[in-house]
Amino acid sequence: MLPITGARSPFFALAACAGFVIVFIFGVLAWRSPSKIPFHHGNNAHSNLGVNEALQILFAPTKLEPTAKSVRSGEDVFELPENPRYTKPMGNDILILDLDTRPLESTEEYKKGKFEWRDLNHVSAGVFNHYTYALIHGYDYKFIKASNFEDRHATWIKPSALANQIKNYKFIVFLDADATFRFLHLPIEWMLNYWDIKPKDAITMAKDPWDPASPQYNSDRFNRTYTNTGFMIVQNNKKIQEILKAWHECPDDTRYKECSQWKTPKFHEQSAFGEYIRYDYEDDIKELDCKEANGFPGVEISNCTGHFVRHYWFDKSLVKMDYRDNIMQALTLPIQKAFADNTNGIVVETGKNQIY
């Protein structure tokens, strides 16, 4: 449960910030010798350890290689198939992408000197999850603030933004603000191997939940389940620009005569993709089961529990909790290690309770 929010004194805020910094530093030092961390000393004493380096150090003990044989989470074990295609980290050949037509509320609050983690909304929390993930693995990251359309819903910004950015990357991984990476230590390359993403797979998406009791929801005119555009892996191959152009121009009713019906009704660009685009590019679109990269724990329909990517369509407050739990897991693990390994004799066992 999150702490109760409300009015706080400046001293409380200062103490809280100081406490977090102390815990973070000790957590990092527990894993890495202080002599290896480049601190500068002198009259203008400061550390040149940036947030990206700090996160990479913090997650280094748990970060997996692209060819790690398995991933365990509780009772779940996910096995990598043999002969994985992606064997080395791709770094800045991968772009983690956020899109919006509005600035982050947290940015506005920060500029006013009012930033407070407890008041963070789900949009900022989701973006922080994506940005943190990119820093941990050395991927490029961009938050594109796009212009609104005059005649269609704001989510239609996706195809053109993807088309403009994919020219410079091998892969783009896009997420809606209410979608999160479940495991911050698990690289995209591992997931590409797990899902067997081939060079021909221009766009990969997960299916939406589908309930046979209500077949009219989340399905197209042929009763085929929609794929959800809240998480997409876009690959720079010979077909991708053609697909994205067809998708972007769909509401103009040139190639697809009735596509304009999805300018504003739900599910906007997602419905257009499901009704038209994927039928012309079946061999270039990869569809994942809903449980793989959609939904969240507790969703029983189609078992949409978000094994690797979670999408909180309804209870968006869970985005923030998901991010918090990831950070606290990485932060407290080295602290536990210090106790388990009895670093520098911090655990002292006594035989009898007496004064010597």
Q: Looking across the biggest beta sheet, what order are the strands in?
A: 6-5-7-10-9-11
Average of pLDDT:
88
- From the helix content, strand content and strand pairing, which structural class follows? alpha/beta
Number of helices: 10
Strand content: 15-25%
CATH architecture: Alpha-Beta Complex
The CATH class: Alpha Beta
Work out the helicity level: 25-40%
Task: Tell me how many strands there are.
Answer: 12
Q: Which ranges are low-confidence, i.e. pLDDT below 50, for 5 or more consecutive residues? A: 1-23, 25-46
Distance between the termini: 44 Å
Q: Biggest sheet: strands, sense, closure?
A: 6 strands, mixed
The rounded Rg comes to 23 Å
CATH superfamily: Spore Coat Polysaccharide Biosynthesis Protein SpsA, Chain A
Give the CA-based shape.
globular
CATH fold naming: Spore Coat Polysaccharide Biosynthesis Protein SpsA, Chain A
Total domain count: 1
